[in-house]
Prior knowledge:
The protein is an alpha/beta fold. Helices cover 35% and strands 31% of the residues. The protein has two helices and three strands.
Amino acid sequence: MDVSIVIVCMNRMDNLYPCLESLRRYTDKSLEYETFVVAYLFDRANLARAVKDFPWVKFIESNEIRGF
């Protein structure tokens, strides 16, 4: 693995989707990477949709704000 990408998101699909789509589109194909999304306080429907739409992302669900 060359790099791990960690994205922290608080149920903002309007920010998350363009971010993940750009990672997939513009990351050098020769680079081996993994992507994690820390899903803070995600609505169940939003989390299920994101998991379905981005199967290559590892989602970490968090239902409380603990800070970074």
